[in-house]
């Protein structure tokens, strides 16, 4: 079994900049060997769901804006950089970048956290369409949607890190 320190070092960033989730999952004894993507995800997601609304909001706020200033300055986490690049968000035209910037600002102003979507398998057009649709959601609906997307991102990250059970 991995030590707590090794587990948190390996999986503490699966939920963006929120190692408390890995710490609590480990401390609860809900991490079962052999480690699989679905097993670790279940343990981490249970902690995320049990966290207070403020803690979950903190996890949402830890996510970067899509095609935002962190991407431009090269300050994204490696996972976020790879995910955004895979969706073409590092190759936006000036007009597309302006639209993302406008939507990012309006979204954060309305909801208090950045727009979050699991971008794997999506193109920039798909993301913009989802952005434009979801900005019309009510606050509670969007909080639920964003937290579900965070869990989906975590599973995608874990799937790239761990095997599934045979």
UniProtKB/TrEMBL annotation:
Keywords: Decarboxylase, Lyase, Purine metabolism. Residues 2-158 form the Oxo-4-hydroxy-4-carboxy-5-ureidoimidazoline decarboxylase domain. It catalyses: 5-hydroxy-2-oxo-4-ureido-2,5-dihydro-1H-imidazole-5-carboxylate + H(+) = (S)-allantoin + CO2. The keyword Zinc does not apply. One of its GO terms (biological process) is allantoin metabolic process. Its EC number is 4.1.1.97. SUPFAM superfamilies: UraD-Like. Pathway: Purine metabolism; urate degradation; (S)-allantoin from urate: step 3/3. Coiled coil: none annotated. InterPro entries: OHCU_decarboxylase, OHCU_decarboxylase-1, OHCU_decarboxylase_sf. It holds the Pfam family OHCU_decarbox. GO terms for molecular function: 2-oxo-4-hydroxy-4-carboxy-5-ureidoimidazoline decarboxylase activity. This is 2-oxo-4-hydroxy-4-carboxy-5-ureidoimidazoline decarboxylase. It comes from Rhizobium hidalgonense. The gene is uraD.
């Amino acid at each position: 079994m991995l030590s707590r320190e090794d587990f948190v070092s390996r999986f503490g960033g699966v939920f963006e900049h929120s190692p408390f989730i890995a710490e609590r999952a480990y401390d609860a004894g809900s991490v079962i060997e052999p480690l699989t993507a679905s097993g670790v995800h279940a343990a981490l997601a249970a902690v995320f769901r049990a966290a207070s609304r403020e803690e979950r909001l903190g996890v949402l706020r830890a996510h970067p804006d899509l095609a935002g200033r962190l991407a431009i300055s090269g300050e994204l986490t490696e996972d976020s950089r790879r995910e955004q690049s895979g969706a073409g968000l590092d190759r936006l035209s000036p007009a597309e970048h302006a639209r993302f910037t406008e939507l990012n600002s309006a979204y954060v102003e309305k909801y208090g956290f950045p727009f979050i979507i699991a971008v794997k398998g999506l193109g920039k057009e798909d993301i913009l369409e989802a952005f434009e649709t979801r900005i019309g959601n009510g606050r509670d609906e969007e909080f639920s949607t964003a937290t579900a997307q965070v869990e989906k991102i975590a599973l995608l990250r874990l799937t790239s890190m761990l095997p599934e059970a045979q």
